[in-house]
Batch of 2 targets.
Target 1
Amino acid sequence: MSKPIIATTSLAGCFGCHMSFLDIDDRLLDLIELVEFNKSPINDIKNFTNVCDIGLIEGGCCNTENIHILKEFRKNCKILISFGECAIMGGLPAMRNDVPVRECLEEAYLSGPSTVNEERILPNDEELPMILNRVYPCHEVVKMDYHLPGCPPNADLIWDVLHALILDVNIELPYEVIKYD
Amino acid sequence: MNKQIIFTIDQKECTSEAGKYIVDAARENGIYIPTLCNYKGVKPAGSCRVCTVKVNKRHLTACTTPVAEGMEIELNTTELNDLRKAVVEILFTEGNHFCPACEKSGNCELQALAYRFQIMAPRFPYQFNKRDVDASHPKILHDHNRCILCKRCIRAVKNEEGKSVFTFENRAKKVHIKLDEKLGDSLTDELAEKAMEVCPVGSILVKEKGFEIPIGERTYDKVPIGEMLITDK
C-alpha cells in the first residue's frame, strides 16, 4: 500500500505555523517514514502531482490568489485542515477587517509616515493578485474538515493530530495543547 | 443559619443551606458550574447564560437561582454542554478577539472557557464589527473589541461613595462600556487595578501592565478554569 500524501501551504500567514510543524523535531523522521509530501513549501513542489490525503492550510484569505490556492487544495485533498489562528479566524491580518480597503491601501502606499511614492501609484498591475474587501477565514471559503487553533499551533497538537489521522485512530487531546496564542 | 436542604446535581446528592445560589451550593459540594459574568462578592446578573442548568425541564441560570429542597438539577448533559459551548462561540464571533495579540491571553476567562470546552473553531460566522480602542485615560486602556458586556466592571468597581465608575452608554447593538467622565478623573490606582482584575477579558487594562506573566505560568496555561476552585474546596 502506498503511503498517505500530505500537502501544505501558507496563505495570508507568516510561516510561523510551518515553523511549529518543523518543531515536532525528531518526530519528523518518523513522519517521513509514514507519509509522502506533495505540494508544499517544505519540499518546494509548486503544483499538485497527485491527489493528497491531508492538506494543511496556514493563514486566511486576503487576496484572490489565496482563494485560488485554497480551492485548489480543496479539489486535491481528501481532508483539509485549518492550522493556526489566521486560517481559523483571519488572525492578525484580519485586524484590517473593519477598515475599508481604500483606507488600508492609502495608509500603506500614500499617506504612511515612512512612505515615498511621488507618483502616488496604488498597486494595480494585473499580474498582482487583487486584495479582498476583508480577510476571510478558510472555512468561510471552502469546507474545512478540522481546525487546529494556536498562534502557532502547539507542535504536539500538530503531531498528535497528523499521527492519529494517518493511523486512523481516535485521540484524546490533553488540555495544554489547545491554546489560541 | 438557614436550614440545610438536600438536592441533586446530575443525580448526585448534595446538601447546602437553603437560599444559596445554585453555583455556590454546587461548589460547596465539589461541583463546578461554568460561569462568566458572575464574580465573587458581587450581586449576580445572569446575563451571559454560560451557567445555564435545567431544573424541571426549564432552563435556569445557576448564578441567580437559589437552591430549594429536593431540586433535581441537570448540569452536564449533551444538550446543556453544547448550549454553553455555543454561548462562548457567539461571544468569540460577536467581538473581535485576536487572542495572539491580547495582553490578557492566558488569564482570560472567556478564552479559558473555550479551552475547557475544547472549542477548535466557532460554528458561527465572524462578525468583524467595528469597535474602538480608547486610550485617552491616563491610567487605563479600554479595548471595546474584546468587551463581552458582562457588566462585571459596572457592578464591582465602585468608589468610596458606592458609585459605579463604569457605565453603559447607548443601547442595543450600539451599547458599550464607558468610564464615567467625572468619576473617571479621580480613578485611583487601586480601582484601576481592580477594574483590570474584574474584567474577565482584556477589555480593561491598566497601562504599562500587559504581558507581565510569562507564557506557561499564566492562570489557565496548565489548569482548566474551574479545576482550582474544586481542588481548593
Note: DSSP finds six helices and seven strands in chain A.
Target 2
Amino acid sequence: MKKKLLHAFDWLLLLGSTLLVCTFLGIILWDIFSKGLPAISWDFLLQYPTDGMTQGGILPAVVGTVLLTFITTLFAVPFGVACAVYLNEYAKHSLFTNIIRASIRNLAGVPSIIYGLFGLALFVQAMKLGTSVLSAGLTLGLLSLPYIIITTEEALKRIPNSMREATLALGVTQFETIKDVILPKALPGILTGVILTLSRAAGETAPILFTGVAFYINGVSTSINQEFMALPYHLYMLSTQHYAIEQVRPLAYGTAVVLITLVFLLNIVAFIIRSKYRTQD
Amino acid sequence: MEEIKLSARNLNLFFGNKQILKNLSIDFPKNQVTSLIGPSGCGKSTLLRSFNRMHDLSPDARIEGKLKMDEMDLYNKANSVTEIRKRIGMVFQKPNPLPKSIFENLSYALHIHNFPKAEIPGLIENALKESFLWDEVKEELKKPAVKLSGGQQQRLCIARTVVLRPEVILMDEPCSALDPISTRKIEDLILKLKKDYTIIIVTHNMQQAQRISDKVAFMYLGELIEFDSCENIFSNPKQELTKEYIGGHFG
Amino acid sequence: MIDWTFKQVFKGAGFLTIALLGSIFFMLMYNAFSFFSRINPIDFFTGIQWDPDTSYSIFPLLVSTFLVAIGSMVIAVPLGILTAAFLSEVAPEKLQMILKPVIEMLAAIPSVAIGFLGIVLLGPFISKLFGIQNGLNALNGSILLAIMALPTIITISEDAINSVPNSHREASLALGANKWETLFKITIPAALPGLIAAVMLGLGRALGETMTVLMATGNAAAIPKGFLDSVRTITATIAIEMGEVPYQTTHYFALFAIAAILFLISLSINFLGEYFANRLRKFDA
C-alpha cells in the first residue's frame, strides 16, 4: 500500500513537471497575445512611428528585420551548405575534419553577444562597413553558419551511401552526383534547418546591438549601408529605454505579437516541410 | 503422475491484427527442464514471455485464454505483476547485466522486494555459488558487470534471477550469444538448477535440447504440434512435421 | 576538370568558413591581451568593483553571471529531466505528438520577448510576492533563463533516456521491479552521462544569454548578496557599455577581456557536455 502511494506520487511528479512546462508556454502566449492583439491593425503594420514613438506603426522595424534576415540568408546559406558538402562529401575522415567538426559544434554554443563584438571589430571597424544593415546581416550570418553547417550535414548523412555508389558506378562525376542526386534528395532537410536557423536569427538582438541597429530612422532603410530598425530591438527599446514607458506599453505588446508571429510562421513552414519529407521516406 | 507447475489453456495471443499463438494448451511439469523448439517465428519466445507477463509492455498485444501457476491465475487483476515476475524469473537471449557493479546487479532486486538488509550479502554469495560464478568474481564484486565476459555475464543474469528464489525460470535462448565452452557451463548449471526450479527454455540448438531436456515441445506457426518426453521426440516423433524439423529439413 | 574546380570551390568555402569562425577566437584574445597590457590581471580577477575609468574587476560580474545561471539550473534541471522522463517513458504516442511541438514553440520564442515578460509580468509579481520595491533581480533572471534553457535540457535528456537499451528495462522488470523503480533506479542512472550533457548545454545557454538578463535583472554592478538583489551579468555589461565606449580605449579592451573570459567559460562547458555525450555513445556500443 505504501508502495502504491509512493508510485502515485512519482506519477504526479512527472505529470506535474510536464504540465508546468506547458503552463510556461501558455502564460507567455496568453499574456502577449491577449494584450498585444488589440494593438494590431493594418495601420500598426504599415505606418511609420510618429509623435516620438508614442503613436503610429512599426513598418520600418518590419522592413528592417526582413532585409536583415535576407542579408543573413544570402551570406550564411551558400557558405554553410558548401562547407557541409565539403565536410560530408569530399573531406576524408581525419583528425583535421574531426577538429573542424568539434569547433563548429562549439561555435554553435558561443554566446550571441560575442558574435556582436566580433561583428563590431571585423565588419564595422576593420572592414570599414560602418554600423549598417550589411554589417549586422553579416554578423547574424556568422552566428547562423554553425547551425546551418550542422543541420545540412545531418541531412546529407541521412542519404544512404548506396545512392552515391549507384550514380558513381554509372561513370557520373562526383560533382554531378552531388548536384543531381545528393542535394535534391537532401533539400527538404537542408531547407528545414535553414528556416529554423533564420527564425532564430530574426529574433536575435544582442549581435545587432553594436553593428547597425537604430531606435529610430527617418523613413524605411533601402540602402544596405544605412542603419536600420529591427523588431526585437524595437521591443527592447520600447520596454526599457523609452521616456514614456507606460504609455507605449500597448505598442510594445503589439511589437512582441508581430515578432513572435513571424518566428512561429517560419517554424510552421519548417514543420510542414519536415513532415512532408518524413511521409515521403 | 508428475506435478504440474505452469500451464496454458486455450491461449490466443495477438499483436495488433496478427495472431501469434493459436489456441495453445500446454502443461509444464515441476522441477523438470522443458525445451521449446521450432523454427524462427513460431511463437516460442512469445509463449515464454506471456508467463511472466512481459507482453504487458507492448500496448498492441492482446491475450485470451488461461495461464496458471499452480492454482494462481497469472492474468487475474488481483495478482500483482511484480510478485508474479519475482516468482517467475527470466533469463534473456543476450546477456543484459544492468549498468551497475556485479554486487549491485544482484542486490538491486533484493532491495526492490524488501529483503532484510543484513541477509543480502549472504543471499548474493549463495546465488553466485549456485551459478558457478562465485570463484571467478568473489574478489571483484564491485567491478562493473559489463566488464565480465559474455558467458560470465549470462551466469550473472542467472544468479540475479536465482537470488530471488523464484519457482520457475524462463530462459529465452540463453546460449545463442555464447561460445561453446560458456554454453557448456550454462547447460551444466541448468541441469543442477532443475532440482529446485521448474525451467522452461527456448532453444534453436537440437543437441542442446537433447542434452538438457526432460520434455520437449515442438511448435510451428503459433501452434503446439507435439509435446512429449525428450527421448520420444528425438527418437520417435509422432508427427511428420516434428520429424522433418528435427531431421533438419526446414527451419 | 569541372569536377576538380567545384571540389576546390567547396573546399574554399569550407576553409573560409572555418577561418572566419577561427578568427573570432583570435580577435577576442588579441583585444584581451591589449587590455592586460594596461591593467594588471590580478586586479582584474580579485578586485571587487566594476566601475569603468576607475576599477576594472570582473569579479562582481562573474558572481552575478553564475548566480543567475545556477539559479536557473536549480529550476530547469529537475523540471527538464522529469518532463523528458514523462515524454519518453510514460506519455502515449498521441500525447507526445502534442507535447513535442509545445517544447519546440517554447524554444522558438525570441529572448527579447521573454525579457519583456520579465519586466511587465514576472517583475511586478516578484515585487508583490516578496514585498520589495524592485522585481528586476537575480530571481527574475533565473526563472526566465530556466524557461529558456528548458527546451534544450528536455530535448537532449529525452534522447539520452531513449538511448538506454531496452534490455536494461526488461532485465529490471523481469526481476519484479515496477515501472517507477525501473525508471528511477535503472533508466535514469543509465542515462546519466547524457543527462549531464543536457545540463551542461542548458547551463551554457543560460550563461551566454544577453537580452533576457539585460532586461530583467536590474543591472546593478555590485556583488549580489542574494537572489532578491539586482545583478549585472557579463553579457549585460557588454550590451550596456559597448555602445557608448570610444574605439580602442582601455574600457573598450576591458569589454573584450570580459567577453574572452565568458567565451572560455562557455567553451569549457561545451567541451564538458561533449565529453559526457560521448561517454553515453560509448556506453551504447
Note: The mean pLDDT of chain B is 91.
